[in-house]
Design goal:
Blueprint lengths: L2 H17 L4 H15 L7 H16 L12 H5 L3 H12 L7 H22 L8 H5 L1
C-alpha cells in the first residue's frame, strides 16, 4: 500500500475515533470504503478488481458474513441498508481508469454523493467527505 493510501486510511481511523466511535454502521461504511479502495488500483487489471467487488457484493447481498472480511459488514443487513450499500458498490464499479478524465470524475462524484448520503442518514452530524479527499 502506498503512503497516500496509508495516510487516507489513518485519517479515516481518526475520524471514526473522533466522530463515529459508537456508530457501527458508519464504521462498517468506512471499512467498506477501505476494502473497495485497497482492492482497486487504477493501474490494476480491471477484471481482478471487478471480481473482488463482485465477491463482496455477493456476500452482502446473500447475507454471507461467514468470513473475516464480510463479517464486518453484517450491520448493513441488520439495519436494512442492504439496497443502498449494494448501489454504492455498483457505483464504485462504474469508476473506470483515468484515461477518460471526465467520465472518471463523474463516476467518482456519483460514488461520493451516495457515500455522503449514507453518512448523513446514519449519523447525527453533517460530516461530509470530498471527492478530492477520496481520490487523493
Amino acid at each position: 500500500m502506498n503512503k497516500k493510501k496509508k495516510d487516507f486510511f489513518y485519517t479515516r481511523y481518526l475520524q471514526k475515533q473522533i466522530y463515529f466511535r459508537k456508530n457501527a454502521v458508519v464504521n462498517a461504511l468506512f471499512n467498506l470504503e477501505k476494502y473497495l479502495f485497497e482492492n482497486f488500483e487504477f493501474k490494476q487489471d480491471i477484471p481482478t478488481a471487478y471480481i473482488k467487488q463482485k465477491w463482496i457484493y455477493d456476500c452482502i447481498n446473500k447475507n454471507d458474513y461467514s468470513n473475516e472480511i464480510s463479517s464486518q459488514f453484517r450491520v448493513f443487513s441488520e439495519r436494512r441498508l442492504k439496497k443502498k450499500i449494494l448501489k454504492l458498490i455498483d457505483s464504485f464499479s462504474e469508476i473506470s481508469d483515468l484515461s477518460e478524465t471526465k467520465i472518471f470524475l463523474q463516476a467518482f462524484q456519483k460514488f461520493n454523493d451516495q457515500f455522503n448520503n449514507l453518512l448523513s442518514s446514519e449519523s447525527n452530524n453533517n460530516f461530509k467527505t470530498s471527492i478530492y479527499f477520496q481520490i487523493y
